[in-house]
Design goal:
Number of strands: 2
Distance between the termini: 28 Å
Radius of gyration: 13 Å
Structural class: alpha+beta
CATH architecture: 2-Layer Sandwich
Helix content: 10-25%
Shape: globular
CATH class: Alpha Beta
Strand order of the largest sheet: 1-2
Order of helices and strands: HEEHH
Strand content: 5-15%
């Protein structure tokens, strides 16, 4: 699954710089996570770094983006240019 940021986000700016996939960006009201880029830090860390640093615990799994570990790892592989 990709992660998501809820409206409980306080825009503290700590999650964006720790994301190894650059999946987190400022949204209109609070930060957002691009589910096409989010790997839950699989392939980088043992646990999602945004969840580790979030002071208000507003980053749950996104039930709309259910993915296996293999699917998350596949996002890390560069796409073929052929």
């Amino acid at each position: 699954m990709a992660l998501m940021i809820t409206d409980e986000c306080i825009n503290c700016d700590v999650c964006e710089p720790v994301c190894p996939n650059q999946a987190i960006s400022p949204g209109p009201d609070y930060y957002v996570i691009d589910p096409l880029k989010c790997t839950e830090c699989v392939g980088h860390f043992d646990e999602p770094q945004c969840q580790v640093v979030c002071p208000v615990a507003c980053i749950p799994q996104d039930p709309n983006w259910i993915e296996t570990k293999e699917q998350l790892l596949a996002k890390l592989k560069p796409e073929s240019t052929t």
